């Protein structure tokens, strides 16, 4: 599963109406709502949007006929297998009615073109652990952990006998990484699985 690395926009004119899609990453529902509020154009006729965050999703037609705007935008998100994404497509009406099929193609197509052009980043489910390690094994452990992809030491606190490390590690590799920690420290590391 992928999400967007940064916000991106794409515009096109369809039968004298201007469509502007703005898409961005959204970590949670509030972030999606904030994105929508920040990018709604007050001078536009319609600010239609959709977002997906895991199993949660919402979409809005903002005055367009039901099912012709928000749902096609959501389908563009799902069609590219994206998650944690919000897309707003704004329309400035140009005087020519597009009909239901035309609106579905215009909103969904503008959203899809925007998302296709976006830089994407892989979503890696992470878990956190606290590890207490003695000074004698600290340098080797930190070196080994820093060489692992997607593994991050998020905090380091020194204690009387060594350090307490807080790690963020890929959930899929958690058992292997914790086994490595145990082996490197000869079983002396204290692992708190939280």
Structure notes:
By secondary structure, the chain is α+β, with helices and mostly antiparallel strands. The chain contains 5 helices and 11 strands. β2 (8-14) and β3 (17-25) form a beta hairpin. Helices cover 32% and strands 37% of the residues. The chain has helices spanning 29-39, 70-79, 99-117, 135-146, 174-184, and strands at residues 2-4, 8-14, 17-25, 46-53, 56-60, 85-92, 120-122, 126-134, 152-159, 162-170, 190-192. Strands 2-3-6-4-5 form a 5-stranded antiparallel sheet, with helices on both faces. The protein has a 4-stranded antiparallel sheet with strand order 9-10-8-11. The model has no long low-confidence stretch (mean pLDDT 94).
Question: What keywords describe this structure?
Answer:
4-stranded antiparallel beta sheet; 194 residues; alpha+beta; 37% strand
């Amino acid at each position: 599963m992928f999400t967007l690395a940064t916000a991106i926009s794409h515009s096109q004119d369809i039968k004298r109406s201007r469509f502007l899609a703005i898409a961005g990453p959204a970590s949670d529902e509030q972030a999606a709502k904030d994105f929508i509020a920040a990018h709604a154009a007050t001078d536009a006729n319609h600010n239609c949007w959709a977002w997906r965050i895991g199993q949660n999703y919402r979409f809005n037609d903002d005055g367009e006929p039901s099912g012709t705007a928000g749902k096609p935008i959501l389908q563009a998100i799902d069609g590219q297998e994206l998650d944690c994404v919000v897309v707003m497509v704004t329309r400035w009406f140009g005087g020519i009615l597009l009909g239901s099929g035309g609106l579905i193609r215009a909103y969904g197509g503008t959203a899809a073109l925007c998302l296709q052009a976006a830089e994407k980043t892989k979503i890696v489910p992470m878990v956190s652990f606290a590890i207490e390690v003695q000074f004698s094994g600290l340098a080797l452990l930190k070196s080994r952990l820093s060489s692992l992809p997607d593994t991050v030491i998020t905090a380091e606190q020194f204690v009387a006998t060594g350090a307490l490390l807080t790690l963020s590690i890929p959930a899929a590799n958690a058992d292997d990484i914790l086994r490595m920690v145990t082996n490197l420290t000869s079983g002396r590391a204290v692992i708190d699985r939280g």
